[in-house]
Specification:
single chain, alpha+beta, Ribosomal Protein S5, domain 2, 5-stranded mixed beta sheet, 5 strands
Amino acid sequence: MTTTTVKETIVEATKAIHKEADDAENKKPKIDKFGRSYGTGRRKNSIARVWVRKKKGKTAQITINKLDGKKYLKRAILYVLINQPFVVTKNEENFDVICTVKGGGLTGQAGAIRHGITRALDIFDPTLHTDLKRAGFLTRDSRVVERKKPGRKKARKGKTYRKR
């Protein structure tokens, strides 16, 4: 690569970043009559439907399937996982979250909730888009369990080969 092409590449990348920021500023928030924004999150076999709204009480609440978020998720690390979008955007105590989640286990459900919260926040306040995108929260994690194949014990585990 020559020096001019490297410079041109850097200039193009910078223009793309600024264009993305301008697009985020020009987007209008989508908020329903109850003051909520909606986002769907997916991870493994879990699907989460998430509504985000400005907090009503003194503290922000996270409700999952009509239960308190900490009671539903049981493990503290999963609660930290679903709070990551708020930490990145510096909105830890500013939003209430109501979500219904089904399918998969607790880890997959927590990942789906985080993805849904991220999408809902992006719709609620488009200026947060670049922070959420840089953190990688807007990208859906497409990894799923590999299916079991015929003639094998599991997805990849086969019978042990013996020569004699």
